[in-house]
């Protein structure tokens, strides 16, 4: 029997499991309800999934293992892996105990592959994955902009270099509107139009697996009804004739004051004309206001996480290393890149052997 008992997650475990995840991945925080909802969505969509926890002596949850399927890169026999161990318990076999159970589950499902992300500077993860047959692939950069840096007089970035782009596009009749505005205005068929826009702009996003269409039902639940979505920061770029030509979104977990960027994308006909820069400029303006509000209205969990960064609030975004245009825009706005995260994959043969 393993030194670390592994069992399916129970209703009373979600907060402890989310704490394990957030401590191990502070740049990708979750609260208990958020983690539970994300897992329950897999059931709603008819996907195979599992959630396991590892316990220390006395029953404390010290590890979390998740298997899921990505609706944006869906294949019935390909899975995503999330593995987290409390930092003070890492290197003691907790992750190995979780992986042993998860691997058996994958083989029972006749999985073709399982994929996970790991920071390249993590002291244990690359070696852990290599020993178990995973191979590295596409690299992604998480970049962060400090929205509360005291060295800035008024804003965490200099708007000057981008105002000419804003002026030029405004002269052409391009406008930026928020989801909150569009809802208040009673925009007809709003959810369907937003779904169509996202379906359009996500076509060329670099991915580790081929993209699959997002159904409207998945989009409506996973994006529009995500409790972390900020409607005032879901921005749409609108052309002079009323056509929607780009989008950018912000999310915030209740467990952290930081802001997380969702998909920023522009329709093919409007690329190369500064629309993504315009959206990023407006997103940063909204983010600065939200960061100020966050300092006064943090939940206890968010306060605890903020204490680790001296009360600073960051705007975070991630991009594939080969997404040069978006990386260049982020660099111009002053985002600082973290060490890359690497997509690791374990391929299983037709007979279930890796």
Automatic annotation (TrEMBL):
GO terms for molecular function: acyltransferase activity, transferring groups other than amino-acyl groups. SUPFAM superfamilies: Acyl-CoA N-acyltransferases (Nat). Residues 4-153 form the N-acetyltransferase domain. It holds the Pfam family Acetyltransf_1. Keywords: Acyltransferase, Transferase. It comes from the Bacteria. This is Acetyltransferase. It comes from Deinococcus puniceus.
């Amino acid at each position: 029997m393993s030194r670390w008992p592994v069992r399916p997650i129970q209703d009373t475990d979600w907060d402890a499991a989310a704490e394990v995840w957030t401590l191990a991945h502070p740049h990708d925080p979750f609260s208990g309800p958020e983690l539970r909802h994300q897992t329950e969505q897999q059931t709603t969509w008819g996907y195979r999934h599992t959630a396991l926890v590892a316990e220390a002596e006395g029953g404390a949850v010290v590890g979390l293992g998740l298997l899921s399927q990505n609706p944006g890169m869906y294949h019935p026999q390909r899975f995503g892996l999330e593995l987290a161990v409390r930092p003070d318990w890492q290197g003691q076999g907790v992750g190995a105990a979780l992986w042993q159970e998860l691997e058996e589950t994958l083989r029972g499902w006749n999985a073709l592959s399982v994929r996970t992300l790991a920071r390249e500077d993590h002291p244990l993860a690359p070696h852990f994955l290599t020993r178990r047959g995973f191979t590295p692939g596409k690299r992604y950069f998480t970049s962060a902009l400090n929205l509360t840096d005291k060295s800035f007089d008024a804003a965490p970035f200099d708007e000057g270099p981008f105002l000419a782009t804003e002026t030029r596009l405004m002269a052409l009749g391009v406008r930026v509107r928020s989801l909150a505005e569009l809802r208040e205005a009673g925009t007809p068929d709003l959810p369907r139009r937003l779904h169509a826009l996202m379906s359009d702009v996500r076509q060329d996003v670099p991915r580790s697996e081929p993209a699959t269409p997002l159904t409207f039902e998945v989009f409506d639940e996973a994006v529009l009804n995500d409790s972390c979505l900020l409607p005032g920061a879901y921005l749409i770029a609108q052309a002079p004739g009323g056509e929607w030509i780009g989008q950018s979104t912000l999310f915030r977990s209740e467990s952290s004051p930081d802001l997380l960027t969702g998909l920023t994308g522009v329709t093919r006909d409007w690329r190369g004309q500064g629309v993504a820069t315009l959206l990023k400029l407006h997103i940063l303006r909204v983010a600065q206001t939200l960061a100020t509000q966050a300092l006064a209205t943090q939940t206890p969990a968010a306060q605890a996480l903020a204490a680790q960064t001296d009360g600073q609030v960051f705007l975070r975004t991630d991009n594939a290393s080969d997404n040069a245009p978006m990386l260049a825009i982020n660099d111009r706005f002053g985002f600082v890149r973290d060490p890359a995260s690497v997509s690791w994959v374990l391929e299983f043969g037709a007979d279930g052997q890796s």
